[in-house]
Write a structure and sequence with these properties.
This protein has about 270 residues and is an alpha/beta fold. It is about 45% helix and about 20% strand. It is built from 10 helices and 9 strands. It is globular and about 50 Å long. The protein binds ligand C2E and calcium ion (3 copies). One calcium ion binds next to loops. This is Phosphodiesterase.
């Protein structure tokens, strides 16, 4: 019996130890990725629901490993937020995305750049100055920049968030609410926030035409967006059927594997089949 218990205990602590080591390893990996230019931006097209023409791209972060494989943000964003490394990582993404946006703009391609901003980064006092400086340095038209934030941002210091958003908005930067509908938050914040776009979460899109309630939800969100003068984007569009249905439901823009996975900048096309 003692043996079993001892083994049990050993197993447990080894497990904790390996968890600690892998977190430690990931932390070091993130830190060195920032220094060694191994933060990568992939871009996923966002298309006009009526024409399929390219309207914007969403920049999605990856970490390049020694063997050139890419680590997904699902694996590192939680740790990056806990350790606040998300701030330098996010700053690097802003630089990469603006560099690319400048290149596209010089080539005559007028598309918007959507950037995911973690609440940790948004609340960092250096965030707004950093962004404005980068806009200046890379000669970016602020009208081409859209920041994706989640409803969790609205949970605290709403007044400060409103002030920051208004400042960004005055410069011409757009704000979108990512994963809209999953946050269980009170919708009244929409009245107060200077928001431009609602991004319908992919969980609602996945169930379209399978489950009636999701269709009603998507319809309700697009109607809400329209009546408040906002645009709507559906993410996670994986089939032509979904694309057509979303268009019928009044969604303005579409994004998903049906059009393209997140890809390297040179693989982004000017228009997509619809
Ligand atoms: P998100 O902002 O909701 O981004 C959309 C995610 O859905 C992306 O995953 C994208 O690759 C995936 N996706 C796109 N189309 C489809 C589809 O048709 N089907 C399915 N099943 N998935 C699709 P990804 O790139 O792994 O990013 C995951 C999350 O990590 C993002 O979710 C975002 O919350 C976060 N993230 C990514 N890049 C950044 C970044 O630069 N900064 C911050 N703070 N967070 C980021
Ligand atoms: Ca997003
Ligand atoms: Ca999303
Ligand atoms: Ca998400």
């Amino acid at each position: 019996k003692t043996d079993v218990m001892r083994e049990g205990f050993c197993f447990y602590s080894e497990d904790m130890e390996s968890k600690f080591i892998s977190r430690r390893r990931l932390y070091m990996q993130l830190k060195s990725a920032i220094a060694a230019n191994n933060v990568i931006a992939l871009y996923q097209p966002i298309v006009d629901a009526n024409t399929g023409s390219l309207k914007a791209v969403e920049a999605l972060m990856r970490i390049r490993e020694q063997d050139d494989s890419l680590i997904s943000p699902i694996e590192f964003i939680p740790l990056a937020e806990e350790t606040r490394l998300i701030i330098p990582l996010g700053e690097r993404m802003i630089q990469l995305a603006f560099e690319q946006l400048k290149r596209w703009c010089d080539d005559g391609l007028n598309i918007r750049m959507c950037l995911n901003i973690s609440p940790i980064q948004f609340f960092d006092p250096h965030f707004v100055p950093f962004l404005l400086k980068a806009i200046d340095e890379y000669h970016i038209n602020p009208k081409m920049v859209e920041l994706e934030v989640t409803e969790s941002l609205m949970l605290d210091s709403l007044q400060q968030v409103i002030r920051d958003m208004e400042q960004l908005r005055e410069m011409g930067i757009s704000i979108s609410i990512d994963d809209f509908g999953t946050g269980f938050s009170c919708l009244s914040y929409l009245k107060e926030l200077p928001v431009d776009v609602l991004k319908i979460d992919k969980s609602f899109v996945a169930q379209l035409s399978i489950e009636k309630p999701d269709e009603i939800l998507v319809k309700t969100i697009t109607t809400l967006a329209q009546s408040m003068g906002l645009k709507s984007v559906a993410e996670g569009v994986e089939s032509l059927d979904q694309a057509r249905r979303l268009k019928e439901l009044g969604v303005s823009y579409l994004q998903g594997y049906y059009f393209s996975r997140p890809v390297m900048a040179n693989e982004v096309r000017g228009s997509y089949d619809l």
